[in-house]
Structure formats: structure tokens, C-alpha cells
Design a protein that fits this description.
By secondary structure, the protein is α/β, with parallel strands linked by helices. Helices cover 40% and strands 12% of the residues. The protein has 24 helices and 19 strands. The strands form 5 sheets. It has a 7-stranded mixed beta sheet with strand order 13-12-11-14-16-19-18. The longest helix is centred in the C-terminal third of the chain and has 23 residues.
């Protein structure tokens, strides 16, 4: 199945989806990309609709030069994808103090070679490394200016050396559908530029059918007749390839298989970047994008490839800060914010590679933490660190006032959307109705965390619900990552944070909300110095899930879990003792009870140290 999908036709039983959601929608869209030398019509690049590239870096190296001396120096990253990976890394590399180098800059290729799927990125990398060739007739449908740039690059022996000089490859996977012809991954934007835009109504009809996932072949002969005399590159051989084009939506398992092969071709660590989870202008999630992000994250987990999710930056800094046009253009990062994105990507890679010991980094006095610092544009939103000066800040938060404000916000949400639509459900809606945002167990944990557990860089809350515990901790100065898998509850938590942060500014700085499941979501986060808090982390799961969860605890520095409700429910003392024995047998410290108040016997919080 692997070769059949990557370099063969889609399986015969594979279905197609209704829309090529992440491909451009009109023949004018190709003009939006800046290839560094002007748009296809030769005019100056239009930067009004896309991210402006104001920073450049000349490293004095191009393909074909002498082998590079890599005995020391910054983190070298090769980017494969769109402007959402190329531009941030390139802009971060342009800063003298940033210990990053953009290997793509050194290949001598235009930045218009954008690829959005695993198959397309694998094909491009395979061509560059000469692990695969693609017949010249396909080039007009693959790359901008591909008719001469690709063969030049592919023939250069220096390309492999440059790719080998990279410490890691950062690959963007952001499109759920793709266009294929036999064993070739075609590029939708290049088809628009080189074929659809050269014709008229017939080419538009063909493209519309292809975009819908319909059989476009009945429309092709008329479309080809419109283009044949307009485009010299539309030879019979090239048109024959395009005639067999079809849209295809790979499955999660196929994406995982493709990633494994990409790692094999690369011969070095590969990291995936998803699209950014964002909202529409009406404040609703982009549902198809969100669903595909989840698919990519799951595929990466299958393939063992770390995945960076830019949606965490949207939550941390706000959509208007992250994206162009005050957040309305969710396809392009704000040019002023790209450096921060690049730094975070580089820090993510560095944390996984443990490269901070390299001399080029240490000599400059820069470590991974420097990569994480916001730029001047967002310094006011810099996340705070845990320090002794604020160790007991939570003790001075007026929890009664905070709870009252939470209740008011949530009551309004319930009135507008109803108990289920609000994300609270009837149980929590009833509790809010009587003025209780915090349960007895919430208060117990708040007391414990206010009076101790300060030797951790942050608190990671698994199963954060609507965020009452995590947001209270953030209000008191603790850095908190709130993880919630339920879309409805996550949206409620986002609304609660938005309603509180004006009155409680530390919440905006300290609370990072992440939609996903623990521990899978940790592939986009380094939790090694964190304290895990799992106050109500119970769900229907097979026995082996408990074993996996215990193993995942080791990724944190410490953990507070509810012995009664952790993966499974254990109401009997004997069941909890057996669970604690299992934890200890797994090589962790034996859980120590930390109960300070009576919660009615429904919880038993225990602390697991030195994980």
C-alpha cells in the first residue's frame, strides 16, 4: 500500500471528497505568491494579500559549493512546505542573535515551491536527493519555473551535501486533499497558473469538476483545446498527464506511512508542522481544518514523528496578532509575527534534538529559552516564568471574586447557548446555577498548589474541562497548559478565558489552552520540567490504556492525580492500592496522598515525585 499510494495510483476503492479545501479557488490566486523575482506576469510582487518578506539572510553558500564545516554553529533547518514554514524560519535566521540557519536559502530555489501534503513534500525531497526522477512532461504541473530550475537542481551534486548538512527537516502537512496523476503528485496552484488561467470557460469547468472530486475527464478535451495554442509547455505528453488527474484524500494510516518513507529518504530527524487551528470571522472554528489537524497529529503519533501545532500560538497571542488582516486572513502569518513563529518552531526542534550544547549557540550566550522569547512586537504578552517572588501569588488572589466572575460569564453563556450548547452540560450548568464554579476538589487542589509545588516550570492540566482550575492558577501567576479533548468544553474554556483576562491580566500571559488529548498532545510540547495535574481524568478505555497512561507520567517531572478517577474509577481502597502498586512497579515513586480537606470520599489526590 505504501508504494502504491506514494508513487502509484490511489487505491481503486478510495473515495474522493467534495472540495480541495486547501487549494486556491480561482485562476487569479496563483498571483498572490511572491517568488522573490516578481509575479508570473513580471510585475512587482503584490504584498498586500500575503506576508511581506522584509528580512533576508545571505549565508554565502549555494548548491554546488564546497562541503560545509559543521563542527559547530547554529541549528540548521531545512523547510519543506508553504510560506507558513519557509518565511518564519528564514526570518528567524536573518536575526544575528537567533541560533538558526535556513538551509532552504542555500539551495538556490525560489520560495514559490510550496507543497502542502506528505506525498508532494516526499516527491520534492526525492527529486532533490535524486532518489527519484519525474518525467519532464510533468514539470509544468509541479513547480513554478520548474521547466528549468528543477533539472538544474537535481543534477547538482551539492544538493545532497546541503541536505545532509541540515540538523532536521521541518515539513508542513496542511492540505487534506491532493491532485494526483498516476504516480505523480501534481500541484494545484501550478495547474491553475499553467493550465486553467491559459484557457477560459472549458478549463474552468474542468477545474470545477476536479475540485469537487468528480470525474473531470469528460471535460478535459475541450479544456485542452482552449490551452493548446496558448501555452507552449502544454505538449501532448504534458496534457496526457493532466488528463488523468484526480483528487484524492489520503487516510490517516496512509499519511503515517508517507511520513515513515519521508524519514527514510531524508536520513535525518523530521518534524511536522500542521495548519494553525483558527476561527472564522464569525468566531466559529474552521471545522474541516480542525478535523484534519487532528488526523495529522494522530498520523504523526503512528509514525513516531514529532508535530508542532501553530494553533497553540493563536491561543497564546490571539488570532489578530498571529495572522494577516487583523486575523481575518488565516492562511498567512502577520509579517511582524513571523519571527516569533520561527523561533518557536526552532525551539521545538532544538528541544527534541538537544542541540543547546553546540558551541555556536553557547558562545553567543543563547539557549533554547532565547528562541522562545517573543519579539519586540509581542513583548507585552511574554509568558511569565515560575519564580520565588511569585511563588505564593495564588494565596493573594481573591478566589471568591474570581469565582463570582466565572459564574457570571458562564451563566451568560448558558443563557445564550443552553446547557449543552455552552459546553457545560446539565451537571456543570446546575452547579453554575447555584453559584459554584469550583468544586470541593478544585478548592483542595488550589490550596495545595498555592502552598507548594513551585519547583516546576509549568503546570500541565489533563482534562481541563471548562478551565476553572487552570485559569485560577494562571490568575495567581502559575504558568498553566490546559488540555481538553472535548471541542464543546474547549470552546467554553476559551470563552471563559476571554471574559476574565481583562480583569485578571495574568491569565492572558500564563494560561495556554490546547485542544487535544493527553498524552498525545505532548508531541508538540516539552513537559520534562512540568507538574501534571489530572483531577478528573476518567473515561471508558481498555485495560492497556492505563498502562500507557502510567508510562506517559514519566514524561513529566512530577504529577498530582486523583487515585479514584485516573483513566478508570477505583471506589474501593483495595483497587486504589493495587493501582498504586502498579505505578510503583512501573519504576515511579509510590503515590503519596496530599488530601487537605474532606471532599466527601470521591477523590484521593496523590503526588508522584521525581518522574
Amino acid at each position: 500500500m505504501l508504494k502504491r499510494w506514494l508513487f502509484g495510483s490511489p487505491p481503486a476503492d478510495a473515495g474522493t471528497s467534495a472540495n480541495l479545501a486547501n487549494e486556491p479557488r480561482s485562476s487569479a490566486d496563483y498571483d498572490r505568491r511572491d517568488n522573490g523575482r516578481g509575479t508570473p506576469n513580471g510585475s512587482a510582487p503584490d504584498r498586500s494579500s500575503g506576508p511581506s518578506l522584509t528580512l533576508t539572510k545571505s549565508l554565502g553558500r549555494r548548491w554546488g559549493d564546497q562541503p560545509l564545516d559543521r563542527s559547530d554553529g547554529p541549528l540548521r533547518i531545512l523547510t519543506l512546505g508553504s510560506c507558513r514554514v519557509h518565511n518564519p524560519i528564514r526570518d528567524a535566521a536573518a536575526l544575528a542573535e537567533a541560533p538558526v540557519e535556513a538551509v532552504y536559502d542555500e539551495l538556490g530555489l525560489p520560495y514559490s515551491y510550496y507543497f502542502h501534503t506528505v506525498r508532494a513534500n516526499l516527491q520534492f525531497l526525492s527529486i532533490l536527493t535524486r532518489d527519484r526522477t519525474v518525467q519532464p512532461a510533468a514539470w509544468p504541473w509541479l513547480f513554478f519555473e520548474g521547466r528549468f530550475a528543477v533539472p538544474q537542481i537535481a543534477r547538482s551534486g551539492g544538493v545532497r551535501a546541503l541536505i545532509d548538512s541540515a540538523d532536521a527537516i521541518l515539513v508542513e502537512v496542511c492540505a487534506e486533499e491532493e491532485i494526483v496523476s498516476g504516480d505523480i503528485a501534481l500541484h494545484g496552484q501550478e495547474i491553475l497558473r499553467s493550465f486553467v488561467a491559459q484557457g477560459s470557460t472549458a478549463t474552468q469547468a474542468w477545474w470545477a469538476a476536479l475540485s469537487r472530486g468528480d470525474d473531470a475527464r469528460p471535460f478535459f478535451d475541450a479544456a485542452a483545446a482552449e490551452v493548446r495554442d496558448q501555452a507552449p509547455w502544454a505538449t501532448p505528453a504534458s496534457l496526457a498527464i493532466l488528463a488523468d488527474a484526480q483528487s484524492y484524500k489520503p487516510s490517516e494510516s496512509e499519511i503515517a506511512e508517507g511520513l515513515r518513507e519521508l524519514v527514510a529518504v531524508a536520513g535525518k530527524p523530521v518534524f511536522v508542522v500542521t495548519h494553525a487551528d483558527a476561527m472564522t470571522t464569525s468566531g466559529q472554528p474552521i471545522a474541516r481544518r480542525r478535523a484534519f489537524i487532528e488526523t495529522v497529529v494522530s498520523a504523526c503519533a503512528r509514525a513516531g514523528v514529532p508535530v508542532f501545532q501553530p494553533g497553540t500560538l493563536v491561543e497564546e497571542f490571539g488570532q489578530a496578532t498571529v495572522f494577516e488582516k487583523d486575523g481575518a486572513d488565516t492562511a498567512h502569518y502577520n509579517a511582524a509575527f513571523q519571527v516569533t513563529v520561527g523561533r518557536r518552531m526552532a525551539a521545538f526542534v532544538s528541544q527534541h534534538l538537544d542541540l543547546t550544547h553546540r558551541r555556536g549557540v553557547c558562545d553567543a550566550g543563547i539557549s533554547t529559552s532565547n528562541l522562545m522569547q517573543p519579539t519586540t512586537a509581542d513583548v507585552s504578552r511574554k509568558p511569565s516564568n515560575i519564580a520565588s517572588a511569585v511563588a505564593h501569588a495564588l494565596a493573594f488572589v481573591d478566589l471568591k471574586a474570581l469565582e463570582s466572575d466565572m459564574v457570571a460569564i458562564l451563566k451568560n453563556r448558558i443563557a445564550e447557548l443552553g446547557p449543552e450548547g455552552s459546553g457545560l452540560g446539565s451537571y456543570y450548568a446546575n452547579r453554575i446555577d447555584i453559584g459554584q464554579a469550583f468544586s470541593a476538589s478544585d478548592r483542595q487542589l488550589l490550596h495545595a498548589l498555592a502552598s507548594g509545588f513551585h519547583d516546576y516550570s509549568e503546570i500541565v492540566e489533563a482534562g481541563a474541562g471548562y478551565g476553572q482550575l487552570g485559569l485560577a492558577l494562571a490568575a495567581g501567576g502559575r504558568r498553566v497548559v490546559c488540555i481538553e479533548i472535548s471541542t464543546a468544553r474547549f470552546d467554553c474554556m476559551v470563552a471563559l478565558k476571554a471574559g476574565l483576562q481583562a480583569k485578571y491580566p495574568p491569565i492572558a500571559r500564563n494560561a495556554l489552552l490546547v485542544r487535544g488529548s493527553w498524552p498525545q498532545i505532548l508531541s508538540n510540547h516539552d513537559p520534562s520540567q512540568s507538574l501534571l495535574v489530572a483531577a478528573d481524568f476518567v473515561f471508558t478505555a481498555p485495560p492497556e490504556t492505563e498502562t500507557l497512561a502510567i508510562k506517559a507520567l514519566k514524561r513529566h517531572k512530577g504529577a498530582i492525580i486523583d487515585g479514584v478517577h485516573f483513566v478508570h474509577t477505583r471506589l474501593q481502597r483495595a483497587d486504589r492500592e493495587a493501582f498504586y502498586n502498579t505505578v510503583q512497579d512501573a519504576g515511579l515513586s509510590r503515590p503519596v496522598p496530599i488530601n487537605h480537606t474532606d471532599t466527601g470520599g470521591n477523590t484521593e489526590f496523590v503526588f508522584i515525585r521525581d518522574l
